[in-house]
Design brief:
Arc Repressor Mutant, subunit A, 6-stranded antiparallel sheet, globular, 298 residues, transcription, HTH araC/xylS-type domain-containing protein, 5-stranded antiparallel sheet, alpha+beta, 26% strand, transcription regulation, HTH_AraC, sequence-specific DNA binding
Length: 298
């Protein structure tokens, strides 16, 4: 179930609730269109991929339906919009993304007519983010957020090339099913770390070592995904991404919630299932190509 309540309103006061019930992002044709892709991740996090185009000014009221503070990142890829949350008004564009840490998640997004707007919206609860960022050498608002002393905080930040590249990789997810969810979750954590780094500028908003370890885990994941049938040893995998076996195992536990070997087994099963469902290979071929004869060893 989508943990989000939304309603749109026009300048003349007409609201979505004034019309017969319709699915999320459904608009009368003369108003415009919106497409919202919802991707639930591990508990306490989800991703929205929004595309919209309106012929008239439209304000969308949105509230995240969770019982704890949230951190929200809105990363536009095209068009412009204005975010109002009762505290601040933030201008969004391809060149500027916005971040909000809040207890009251109600916000108003003013969509401009004639603009084709696209954005990735990442939502994480305080408990989910706390599990990822354990070091407190962060900017003061984030430190208080992680400590459970959430204060309302908003920022508009210039979009870096690295953040834009990560967002594009998220949109062009090459996988399907469970593997797509895994790929999306890993990239989202990397995007979150990069965004927090960008927010702090020269200030170390998240520990560099943690950020590097997460990136190494993602690089190791890419190596394993390319060699599921004949993966490198744990020692070789750690050498290829430039870290120790212990740190790589710890990074896998943080990013993917399991040890490298457990992840490898899961990814093999996911791939085998996807091949069987698609009909690309027979049961015999899948059993032969995905037999558990090669494992990550030390």
């Amino acid at each position: 179930m989508l943990p989000l309540a939304t309603e749109w309103v026009l300048p003349n006061g007409l609201r979505a609730s004034d019309l017969p019930p319709a699915p999320l992002a459904a608009f009368p044709p003369d108003i415009g269109m919106a497409d919202v892709g919802f991707h639930p991740l591990r508990q306490g996090a989800f991703l929205l991929d929004i595309r919209s185009h309106f012929h008239v000014p439209v304000t969308v009221e949105a509230r995240v339906l969770v019982d704890e503070p949230i951190l929200a990142i809105r990363l536009p890829s095209s068009g412009r919009a204005r975010l109002r949350n009762g505290r601040n008004t933030l201008e969004e564009s391809r060149d500027h993304w916005t971040l909000s840490m809040t207890v009251d998640s109600l916000c108003h997004i003013d969509n401009l007519p004639g603009e084709t707007y696209g954005a990735l919206v990442s939502i994480m609860t305080a408990s989910h983010l706390r599990a990822l960022v354990s070091d407190h050498r962060a900017i003061a608002p984030l430190r208080r957020f992680l400590d459970g002393r959430c204060e309302e905080f908003d920022a508009a930040v210039r979009t870096s090339d690295s953040l834009r590249h990560l967002a594009e990789r998220l949109r062009r997810n090459p996988y399907q099913g469970a593997m797509a969810d895994l790929y999306r979750e890993g990239l989202l954590h990397q995007l979150m770390a990069t965004a927090l780094d960008d927010l702090g500028g020269d200030v170390e908003t998240v520990p560099r070592t943690a950020s590097r370890d997460q990136r190494r885990a993602l690089a190791a994941r890419d190596i394993l995904m390319a060699k599921l049938a004949s993966p490198p040893s744990m020692a070789e995998l750690a050498r290829q991404v430039g870290t120790s076996q212990r740190r790589l195992s710890e990074a896998f536990a943080t990013v993917f919630g399991a040890a490298p070997f457990e992840c490898l087994v899961r990814w093999r099963l996911d791939q085998a299932h996807a091949l069987l469902v698609s009909g690309e290979l027979s049961v015999k071929q899948v059993a032969r190509d995905h037999r558990p004869s090669s494992t990550i060893s030390s």
